[in-house]
Amino acid sequence: MAAPHAGPGVLGWPQAREAARRAGLRPLPALGLPLAEALGHTLAEPLTALTDLPAFDTSAMDGWAVAGPGPWRVAGRVLAGRTEVAPLDDGAAVEIATGAQLPPGATAVLRREHGRVDGTLLHACGPTPLTTGQDVRPRGQECRRGEELLPAGVPVGPAVLGLAAACGHDRLSVHRRPVVQLLVLGDELLASGVPRPGLVRDALGPLLPPWLRAAGAEVAEVRGVRDDFGLLRDALRHSGADVVVTTGGTAAGPVDFLHRALAEAGARLLVDGVAVRPGHPMLLAELPGGRHLVGLPGNPLAAVAGMVTLALPLLRARSGRGAESPAAAPAAVALPGHPADTRLLPVRRGAEGVRPLAFDGPAMLRGLARAEALAVVPPGGAAAGETVELVEAP
Ligand SMILES: Nc1nc2c(c(=O)[nH]1)N[C@H]1C(S)=C(S)[C@@H](COP(=O)(O)OP(=O)(O)OC[C@H]3O[C@@H](n4cnc5c(N)ncnc54)[C@H](O)[C@@H]3O)O[C@H]1N2
Ligand code: MOO
């Protein structure tokens, strides 16, 4: 239920997601970080090669570098790591290791298993004749110095770190990560132990931080906040985070103080309710100083819906990342929908398409924990064979 004040009103699901992305289109400033610290950040500039790759003609196999047609006179060896290599005369061969620099004048590499040494002469004995350039990785095969390898906006994962190192970088220019403070609201929440009458385990304290980090955020604090208006108002007023994420307190219960605390903290509501199930009371607000607050509903699956709808698009944009690559799949069976709202349904992929999982109620995580994605089911449901959009599950 919406709070009794003039606000943005309930938005459709695609509109809400787009509003969150637009709210974040002010990426955080760039900074230079050593490779070891850049993981999880986002490239602020294109990654360009500082060298040709490979930087020198390289042997792709262990064997012999040969010059011209065989048989060849064997004259010495070149191991990986040698920086000076003598030229090879026509008719000569040197033993060579994978990754070693090819001697000038060499025309091919003969693999060890395709050569036979008879006295001082090397003969080819492979299944096919040796061709010019065989098993040589020529200089610049992968890229040329100055070439753009990745655009700005790409998340820095292990492969990006490896590529950056391979082409000569010690540091990367990345966006500062958005700092997130997670406030978990509710007097009924236990931080450990077994739930008992009236008390439930906090499922979102464990679920959300790793997902937020994977989305590019720096989670500075996870704090439980009692159901007390003053505590919540002060927490919002004093937070230094770029994005405050709250759980619970979005609906109309007697201790759901979030709307009032936002009003007192001088916030402007950008999204206040979304036509999506679960999760319809989710909200997004702009706090003074260009900071944001995402209010996730307390029901755990509803909170997950709020993450994919509002928090992730906002964080992706503030991190300097592009929009999520669209994904879609056919429905293997009819997918149940809500009569008027979009539904986000935990699904698994099979040969014929995606199938819904049991235990998908707003308060449940049992289906989600086995899900490979959330299917975006349009109002009224999706027929078997119909293509549905997929968004990431945690
Ligand atoms: N009169 C109305 N009541 C409710 C409405 C409504 O529109 N009108 N909406 C329902 C929907 S839908 C949802 S979703 C919830 C949203 O509630 P809140 O965001 O205010 O969350 P709470 O009331 O604090 O908690 C709801 C539910 O979730 C449990 N919870 C809360 N936090 C956690 C946590 N960290 N880990 C596990 N479980 C949590 C809490 O114990 C409650 O059971 O409101 C409906 N009501
Ligand atoms: O948004 Mo609520 O998720 O339907 O429980």
UniProtKB/TrEMBL annotation:
CDD domains on file: MoeA
Record keywords: Magnesium, Metal-binding, Molybdenum, Molybdenum cofactor biosynthesis, Transferase
Biological process per Gene Ontology, one example term: Mo-molybdopterin cofactor biosynthetic process
Catalytic activity entry: adenylyl-molybdopterin + molybdate = Mo-molybdopterin + AMP + H(+)
Known pathway: Cofactor biosynthesis; molybdopterin biosynthesis
Domain MoaB/Mog: 181-317
GO cellular component annotations of the record: cytosol
Highest taxon of source: Bacteria
EC number: 2.10.1.1
GO MF, one example: molybdopterin molybdotransferase activity
InterPro entries in alphabetical order: MoaB/Mog-like_dom_sf, MoaB/Mog_dom, MoeA-like, MoeA_C_domain_IV, MoeA_C_domain_IV_sf, MoeA_linker/N, MoeA_linker/N_sf
Cofactor(s) listed: Mg(2+)
Its biological purpose: Catalyzes the insertion of molybdate into adenylated molybdopterin with the concomitant release of AMP.
Record family assignment: Belongs to the MoeA family.
Protein name (record): Molybdopterin molybdenumtransferase
